[in-house]
Structures are given as structure tokens and as C-alpha cells.
Specification:
Order of helices and strands: EEEH
Number of domains: 1
Number of strands: 3
Shape: globular
Radius of gyration: 12 Å
Strand order of the largest sheet: 1-2-3
Structural class: alpha+beta
Low-confidence stretches: none
Strand content: 15-25%
Mean pLDDT: 91
Number of helices: 1
Largest sheet: 3 strands, antiparallel
Distance between the termini: 28 Å
Length: 59
């Protein structure tokens, strides 16, 4: 499962891939075309999948 990451209310600049079903292990992947994990994420999206949205910032 993937989830978009947004810092300080900005547009997402990374995605979190959960590597365990209980969400205790994850990998944060920056949006960088040279990153093979990011390339795998883009392929996953190209198959019609959608990541979970980033958490909303509340002030």
C-alpha cells in the first residue's frame, strides 16, 4: 500500500510504501525519476492504482 506524504501542507513530494500489513514498517520514497522504488510506484499507478491521500494539515 502506498500513501502520499506532504510536509507542512505543501504538495506531496514523496510517497510512503508500507512493507508490512500492520503498518509498522515502511519505506519513504522521494519523487525522483532516478529512484528505482519511485519507478516501481509509477508503474503501480500506471496499472490504475491510487495511493491513499496525504494527511490533512490542521492548524
Amino acid at each position: 500500500m502506498y500513501k502520499l506524504l506532504s510536509y507542512f501542507g505543501e504538495e506531496p513530494k514523496a510517497v510512503r510504501k508500507y512493507t508490512s500489513d500492520d503498518k509498522t514498517q515502511w519505506l519513504d520514497i522521494p519523487f525522483n525519476e532516478a529512484n528505482t522504488d519511485y519507478q516501481a510506484y509509477l508503474a503501480w499507478v500506471a496499472l490504475g492504482n491510487t495511493p491513499q491521500p496525504a494527511d490533512e494539515v490542521t492548524e
